[in-house]
Amino acid sequence: MSLILQKFRVLRNMLTRRPILTIFDVTKLCNQRCPMCNIWKTESHDMSLAEIENKACELQKFGIGYVFLQGGDPLVRKDIKEIIDIFLKHGIHPTVITNGILLTPEIAEFIASRPCNLAISIDSLIPERYKILRGVDTLERVIANIDSFKHLHRKHKGNWSITTTVTKMTELNDVINIMNFASERGFMYAIRPYITVSGTAGRKDENLLYEVGDVLEIFDFMLKKARRENYLASLIYEEHIKYIKGEPMPECDAAKYSFLMKETGEIAPCIEFPNLPVELDNFRDCQKKYCEKFRVCNENTPCFYGCTREVGFLWRKKWKALAHIGLIISQMIKYGNFL
Predict the structure, then answer these.
(1) Residue 160 is inside which H or E element, if any?
(2) 4-10 long-range CB contacts below 8 Å, 24 or more apart?
(3) Which of 156, 207, 267, 304 could pair with 112 as two cysteines, CB 3.0-4.6 Å apart?
(4) SS3 per-residue string spanning 166-204
(5) Among candidates 97, 95, 79, which has minimal Cα distance to 40?
(6) Alpha carbon distances (Å) from 288 to 59, 77, 283, 291
(7) For the chain (length 339 residues), average pLDDT per consecutive 10?
């Protein structure tokens, strides 16, 4: 009964523009040194399992239905399996976002046996380029890890994906190779634009900054593919292209459909404003208090983080999606459930 009630809470939040997604920095510790990232730290004041349990209970009552378990790298924590089960117990659907270095067959089988999503970041299959983009020479190990649980091909209960951050160094042939690599192993594939914004979450690196002409071919390719295979994803790629072209972005969805929970358990509106305190008990007041900050940020340094943009874009395009519901269902039957 409590899980049914939870679904009603999530729906209520969606209809009233309250968050349904929490981005949880499980730990700030990471075993990579990506030049595009400013989130990782050399020390991290992580919550205990008991503290996470209490927070999950609060999130459930608030109406959160989804949580991104990220970092740093969440697999650095030895108790990641217990953390996954805590959120599942409270009716909150987790997605583990990892670089794959510590992804053992044991952890993969654990995730596969539960309705838990898995996203592995691979920015290149060219070893030299991967080393630059990830700060460590671990591509061979990540590939070996993924191949060690290939027997789970399409047997996992959640959606498994490989994602690529597109930078100036990214080439279309490399993207196609990663896409084929993912498909052969039962993973979906998605790309995202490199983002720096204020430098709080994304670090500015001149070697990675692109002009629209550097990456437009890549996003056009993914848009055309998504229209054939994943219409909902095509709606996002349409917005990606507008973003990289510098077109004005609609209002920011920070604190409307998602918020950040730091490794300490503190709540903040989004990853670009980690030091703005938010209280769940008076969340509406916090939304009003910070709305001008979000407006200025969106006007001067717009982002395209999936946590603050994608839910809002899809919700605003819900009627367009419903008009193509037959296509979406046929794509899901042919290519698998991508919801």
Answers:
(1) strand 160-166
(2) 6/60, 6/63, 6/65, 6/90, 6/91, 6/92, 7/65, 7/91, 9/60, 9/61, 9/62, 9/63, 9/65, 10/63, 10/64, 10/65
(3) 156
(4) ECCCCCHHHHHHHHHHHHHCCCEEEEEECCCCCCCCECC
(5) 97
(6) 20, 36, 9, 5
(7) 81 90 96 93 96 97 96 96 97 97 97 96 98 97 96 89 97 98 93 91 93 97 94 93 93 90 96 93 91 91 83 88 91 71
- Report CA torsion sign: 38, 43, 49, 52: negative
CB atoms within 10 A of CB 203: 14
List beta partners, residue 267.
Answer: 261, 278
Angstrom distance (rounded) from CA 122 to CA 148? 17
Amino acid at position 290, single letter: Y
**Beta-carbon-side half-sphere exposure of residue 328 (alpha carbons within 13 Å):** 15
Contact 69, 102 (CB under 8 A): no
Q: Domains of the chain, with CATH numbers?
A: 2-335 (3.20.20.70)
Q: How many Cβ atoms from other residues are within 10 Å of residue 8's Cβ?
A: 10
Considering only CA atoms, give the Rg of the chain. 19
| Residues 6+ away with beta carbon under 8 Å from 130 | 122, 123, 124, 137, 138, 139
Characterize the bridge pairing of strands 188-193 and 267-268. Answer: unpaired
What's the pLDDT score for residue 337?
62
Q: Torsion angle, CA of 145/150/154/155, rounded to 10 degrees?
A: -90
* Residue-wise DSSP of 203-271: ---TTT---HHHHHHHHHHHHHHHHHH-HHHHHHHHHHHHHHTTPPP----BTTTEEEE-TTS-EES-T
Burial classification of residue 128, based on how many CB atoms lie within 10 Å of its CB (0-12 exposed, 13-18 middle, 19 or more buried):
exposed
DSSP 75: G
Q: Which two tokens stand for residue 193?
A: 């634009």
Residue type present at position 24: F
The type of residue at 205 is D
For tokens 């070893």, the residue is 127
Write down the residue that tokens 């583990």 correspond to. Answer: 96
